[in-house]
Structure formats: C-alpha cells, structure tokens
Amino acid sequence: MKFIADSMLGRLARWLRLLGHDTLYFPHIEDGLLLKKAREEDRTLLTRDTRLVKRRGLKNFLLLKENDTFDQLRTVITAFNLLPFGESGRVREYSPSRCSLCNDTLISLSREEARAHVPDYVYRTSDVFRRCMKCGRFYWEGTHPGKWRKKLSETLGCMNGREGLP
Q: Whole-prediction pTM value?
C-alpha cells in the first residue's frame, strides 16, 4: 500500500517509512497538488485536514483525529491491517528498506563500500550497511532500531493482545 501524508503528518510519514511503507511527504505542498499526486500515483491520503477530505472526487483517504504521532500510527496500522507482528507475538525485526528522509529504497552495501562514509566506530562494530541512492544517506544497525522497536511494541501492545496502551 502506498501513502501520501499531508503537511501536518511529517513524523507519521517518517515512522511509516521506518516500517517499510512507501509514504510520500512534502512539508509545503498545496492541497490541489497533493490530491493530484495522490490520484496519479494511486496513493492513500493520510490527513488531519477536514476541509481537504470534503473535496469532490477524493476516494482513498484516512482522516486522522489524533494529535500524537504514535496514536496516529496505531490508527493507520489498524485501518489498513498493517500489523507488524511476527509469529512470536513480538514486533518483527526490521532492517530499513526505505529512506526515512526521502522515501527512496535503500541498497545494501558491503563493509568495504561503506568504510569511507561511516564513522570508524560504526565501521568496526557494524556488519550491515545500507545507502539511499537518492539522497546519499547511510544506514546501519545501531541503538536506534532497538529503541524504535521498543517504542513501537509499547505503542501497539494492546493491538497484539498484550496489556499496554488502552
């Protein structure tokens, strides 16, 4: 499923990208152009703008009422059945597949290819490297993925039959 997020949902767009979902986001796009892009690319519009969803011809959209990014994420995951749980009932291990900044797909790099582009400590302690071919950003397994998996587990805990958020 492909999404396009309105200008109020930048943090949500980033989280969806971290989960591997193709999510466009333009912080300063006009409503007409946003809708045109959504239609042309068959994307579901994610918005908090009640006036925007009243436009004629708009079909694929989700109007979010939540202010909190993680509440928004929970709503999107529930609405489109994007549950990120594995057989164990825990949040699946993800390795990034999309750039969290520009949404392009990432390619895998060998350690030697990454060596000149990452800090020495990262080179010595990491085995898996990825790069966005569009914006050039490098990705590796550090402490951040573990932290965001934990936050995601806490946020979605009640969706998986575990005690957690209401």
A: 0.82
Burial class (CB in 10 A: 0-12, 13-18, 19+), 154: middle
- pLDDT tens for each residue of 15-72: 999 888 999 999 999 999 999 999 999 999 999 999 999 988 788 999 999 999 999 9
Domain regions of the chain by residue span: 3-79, 106-158
Residue 107 has a CB neighbour count (10 Å cut-off) of 11
Alpha-helical runs (H) found in 19-89: 31-40, 69-79
Q: Which residue has the tokens 């979902």?
A: 21
